[in-house]
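Exercise 7b. Backbone tokens:
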């Protein structure tokens, strides 16, 4: 008899909770869901196989913190992804077609990370062990907010010129629907099913053999 593999995630509950977080426009509820369900980051990973774990509430500089961070262990050097999450239905543009103060404020927060590490290069090694480059992601608003020609053009231009990648919170719903149809593609996320606390970040990169050489190079 073939043994049936128990599901790692309670998909039905996640679907219900995710919809509630969107309906309530709750960043807090969404953060709670993401904490225990790494597969929801699927479409934010540049590589889907052999992924490294997601760390949450990563602090640096005594006053900065990103919601999530993870390593892309590329052959050309370690790329650390730093992600900030905003409300699912955060208003993105005003009636005049210009970005709202909420969006500008969120972007400025990510920019402070960019400036901090540029001005304090030694902190990259202290926090992350070694960094060849950063990838900054801001997840804010839903698809409806971005789904018009002007907004799409603005985001495309901004993503290509700012060093900050703007994504919608629908990226998590898409991951859920993808998992329901093709669960086998999420095997690597099953090996790291939940996010990890910031306290374990240093221990992680010190124990990871890939980082030994990279720490000498970067």
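Sequence design result:
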């Amino acid at each position: 008899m073939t043994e049936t593999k128990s599901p790692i995630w309670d998909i039905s509950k996640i679907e219900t909770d995710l919809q509630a977080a969107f309906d309530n426009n709750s960043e807090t509820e969404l953060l709670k869901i993401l904490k225990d369900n790494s597969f929801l980051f699927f479409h934010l990973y540049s590589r889907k196989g052999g992924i490294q774990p997601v760390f949450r509430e990563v602090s640096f500089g005594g006053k900065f913190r990103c919601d999530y961070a993870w390593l892309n262990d590329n052959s050309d050097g370690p790329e650390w992804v730093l992600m900030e999450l905003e409300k699912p239905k955060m208003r993105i543009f005003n009636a005049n077609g210009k970005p709202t103060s909420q969006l500008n404020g969120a972007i400025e927060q990510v920019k402070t990370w960019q400036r901090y590490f540029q001005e304090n290069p030694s902190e990259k090694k202290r926090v992350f062990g070694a960094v060849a480059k950063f990838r900054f992601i801001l997840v804010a608003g839903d698809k409806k907010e971005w789904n018009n020609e002007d907004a799409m053009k603005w985001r495309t231009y901004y993503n290509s010129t700012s060093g900050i990648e703007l994504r919608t919170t629908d990226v998590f719903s898409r991951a859920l629907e993808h998992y329901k149809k093709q669960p086998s593609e999420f095997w690597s996320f099953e090996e790291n099913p939940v996010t990890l606390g910031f306290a374990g970040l240093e221990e992680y990169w010190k124990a990871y053999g890939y980082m030994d050489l990279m720490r000498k190079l970067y």
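Instructor comment: The chain has a mean pLDDT of 93. The chain has one domain: 11-217.
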